[in-house]
Design a protein that fits this description.
The protein is an alpha+beta fold and 140 residues long. 18% of the residues lie in helices and 41% in strands. It has a 7-stranded antiparallel beta sheet with strand order 1-2-3-5-6-7-4, with helices on one face. The radius of gyration is 15 Å and the shape is globular. The mean pLDDT is 90.
Length: 140
């Protein structure tokens, strides 16, 4: 079943993550040159809630991972979510491709402030914003 949950085109690449993301995925990323990467997923039946649309927790998972991925790149090392908010604007429909477009709002010596818009086949369905703590790099 998950083989049918493909992205809209070949500019999207699978996120390799054998942990939680593998459980809820597949998730894909897209490089955008100098702009932050986008991540997204094709909404399948395993993302459905009792109302027949994408479970809100999946939209929040996508957003946390998408914003955190860019915070990690910005810092150049590990980060941890310390505050996260999601505004539900619309529903994600099963079968659509849902993606987040993240942006760095501000970076300090120890924090990265992030925001992003969540789109379902191009329609705005949510906004996410949060704060990521820069962690110390582990010695190699």
């Amino acid at each position: 079943m998950r083989d049918t949950l493909l992205p809209p085109d070949d500019s999207w690449h699978p996120v390799e993550d054998a942990g939680f993301i593998d459980h809820v995925g597949p998730i894909y990323y897209r490089d955008n040159g100098d702009a932050p990467q986008w991540i997204g997923f094709r909404a399948g039946d395993h993302h459905r809630n009792l109302n027949g649309v994408v479970q809100g927790g999946m939209l929040m998972t996508l957003s946390d991972r998408g914003l955190g991925r860019i915070a990690r790149q910005q810092h150049g090392g590990p980060v941890a979510t310390i505050n996260f908010n999601y505004d539900f604007i619309g529903a994600g429909r099963i079968g659509t491709f849902i993606e987040i477009h993240p942006n760095v709002v501000k970076e300090t010596g120890s924090l990265v402030f992030m925001e992003g818009e969540v789109l379902s086949d191009g329609d705005l369905i949510g906004r996410a914003h949060g704060l990521w703590k820069k962690l110390k790099r582990k010695p190699v």
